[in-house]
Amino acid sequence: MTVINVNKTEGRNGSIDALRLILAFIVVTNHTCIFGLYAQDIIDCAVPVFLMISGYYFTPSTLEEEKARYAKNIKKLTPILIGSILLYILWDVVKYYIFEINTPYSISTLWTCANLFCPPLWYIHAFLYLNVILWVVTTISSHLNKEVSIRKTPTFVLLLIAFLLWVFIKSQYHIIFGWNIILCFVFFVIGVLIRRFSINNFDNRLVIAMGGAFSIFISVVLRKYGIQELSGLDIAYHFPTVLLSICLLLLFAKLHISSTNVISQVGRKYSLHIYIVHWMIIEIFNLANNFQIPPLIRPFAVTLISLLLSMLYVKGKHFFIPVH
Model-level pTM greater than 0.90? Predict the structure, then answer.
């Protein structure tokens, strides 16, 4: 789902591309199955990891290159977001005339990123705005000949900023607009930090796996005894979710899966499209009362259909707009 270097395989980590497909399936599972309160923090990890992957691949060497990265992301995300919105508006028209379901719209979604017609689109919406903000900041600093950039910010300062912003939106999200943009920035920065730490030869997979297992254990305990509020508000993800997300990215960053592997290629090319279209497929299943699918089969069915539609879309797009 990350837009950085999406069309290049050279120098990519195939394991992380495979992780993208796994995360897309987790998103679908989260929206199609109910595993109970105990498992919620575990399956909430998908979007944080997607954002961390964006930061993991963020490796500019100069201020101009960093600014160019933001501009590239804006150029890629804008048509994706517009196309996604048009897709769901068209779907809402179909729902209105066939099923007489009226979807309310509000102009506030433009700045809150809370898309009523497709809630999962908040991630793409907010990440686009984040790139616009960062591009403006780097452009201004470039004109002033004073570099203000993520690239030059010390690791400790980035870590402190991410932590303070995360704490802030947990307590103040209800009185501010743009909390989801801040949330995107927090996880994006965590991805940047993971890249920096991984360069320092941190390769103990056992420790990483134990950290992931510990986060799952803590999540279940907090939920079981009704004290999950101690780890934060759901809107900003609980601490065990963040810890599990970090461990997942660290673990897959250390695996060795070729970028030419089928799973890696599918994850790289289609995970974002699966994320976009799956909500519509779920609604179609829910509206088709005579077409019942067993709960445990539903995530696989929705993922497969979303993948097929994504492949058709990409093939059609390349047919009308050849890639050079």
Answer: no
